[in-house]
Design goal:
binds NADP nicotinamide-adenine-dinucleotide phosphate; 11 helices; globular; 6-stranded parallel beta sheet; alpha/beta; binds zinc ion; Quinone Oxidoreductase, Chain A, domain 1
Length: 348
């Protein structure tokens, strides 16, 4: 075991504080990573605040990790010391169920092991990326291409793959009209990907305050839910809507924006249940679906796609002692468009 500096949550309500966590020794298939950049995802806040249920405090969150390999186990073949690598929302899965075999480790039938707050194979609670080091089995470690600026790579490991995967799955591309609801960390990546894939992209935000940004990021149109005519004007318009909103939202109103055969895909994960009227699905053969991150191979594909197409998130770098303030700003939707912690500031 080694003891390393980390930012730690002690309850659902207290501020995070600088403390320490333990990392296991490097096993035969493990890689030890010196974490350099760690993204702040809204899921970190939902988790610690108890929106999704009770948590095993003390807990260190963070599942957008970019760093350098500093040690490898004796059987490791995929990574070597000095490589730039990333870790996302999961650090293990059974590897043998039908979903793992299909490359959908995130849907492992025996339960994938989340990067934080999950029970690891050795019975300990996993601790995430607001820390200086992590030890992960090599199959769950991704390669970060040189073309991606290092401090911008971390958010791709969650915000990137969570939007890339459903856009690919539901066929965003030329001739398709795609709407992205909510222009935050996930939303701004969805806009970049959908634009690069060739779709006609509309942002639907609450107001027009971020319109200039949305168009610069690649949107063709920008709409606001505070426009009372928006839902009638755009009724039946979209082939695909990706909802990234972190709060409850009006599913029926957005279903009305779908064309026949259209799909409303929810990636936002609010604490409260969502409801909808069956008639809004039946009338128009519409689908209401969800999607969770992406598999390991698809995450690597996404990173390579970003390198090839020059895609990276817009980030604001924060030091460790600004993490609590950054969380408040995420909750206030005052993020342009992802906070990334410079973990060199995490010193005891
Ligand atoms: P974020 O940066 O805070 O963005 C969320 C956006 O939702 C905001 O920018 C805002 O957009 C909109 N919004 C926030 N509060 C709202 C409210 N009360 N009413 C209406 N709209 C509101 O969060 P994020 O990191 O992108 O994460 C978004 C959601 O996805 C979270 O629930 C997170 O847990 C979830 N998530 C899911 C997965 C998955 O695998 N499915 C992965 C990662 C994250 P506007 O200001 O433009 O209106
Ligand atoms: Zn996340």
């Amino acid at each position: 075991m080694s003891t390393i500096p980390a930012y730690v949550a002690h309850s659902a309500t207290d501020a995070l504080t600088l403390g320490t966590i333990e990392r296991r020794e490097v096993g035969a298939n493990d890689v030890r990573i010196d974490i350099q950049w760690s993204g702040i995802c809204h899921s970190d806040i939902h988790t610690v605040r108890g929106d999704w249920g009770p948590q095993p405090y003390p807990l260190t969150v963070g599942h957008e990790i970019a760093g350098v390999v500093v040690e490898v186990g004796s059987d490791v073949t995929r990574h070597k010391v000095g490589d730039r690598v990333g870790v996302g929302c999961m650090v293990n899965s059974c590897g043998t169920c039908t979903n793992c075999e299909a490359g959908d480790e995130q849907y492992c039938l025996n339960g994938m092991v989340g990067t934080y707050g999950a029970t690891d194979r050795d019975g300990t609670v996993t601790q995430g990326g607001y820390a200086t080091e992590i030890v992960v089995v090599e199959n769950f470690v991704l390669r970060i291409p040189e073309a991606i600026p290092f401090e911008k790579a971390a958010p791709l490991l969650c915000a990137g793959i969570t939007t890339y995967s459903p856009l690919k799955h539901w066929g965003a591309g030329e001739g398709k009209k795609v709407a992205v609801v909510g222009l935050g960390g996930l939303g701004h990546m969805a806009v970049k990907f959908a634009h690069t894939m060739g779709a006609d992209v509309t942002v639907i935000s609450r107001t027009l305050s971020k319109k200039e940004d949305g168009l610069r990021l690649g949107a063709n149109h920008y709409e606001a839910t505070n426009d009372p005519e928006m839902f009638s004007r755009l009724a039946g318009s979209f082939d695909l809507i990706i909802n990234t909103v972190s709060a409850p939202f009006d599913v029926d109103a957005f279903l009305g924006l779908l064309a026949v055969n259209g799909a409303l895909v929810n990636v936002g994960a609010p604490a409260e249940p969502l409801s909808l009227r069956a008639g809004n699905l039946i009338g128009g053969r519409r689908s209401f679906a969800g999607s969770m991150i992406g598999g390991i191979a698809e995450t690597q594909e996404m990173l390579d796609y970003c390198a090839e197409h020059g895609i990276s998130p817009e980030v604001e770098v924060v030091s460790a002692d600004n993490i609590n303030e950054a969380w408040e700003r995420v909750l206030a939707s005052d993020v342009r468009y992802r906070f990334v912690i410079d973990t060199s500031t995490l010193t005891k």
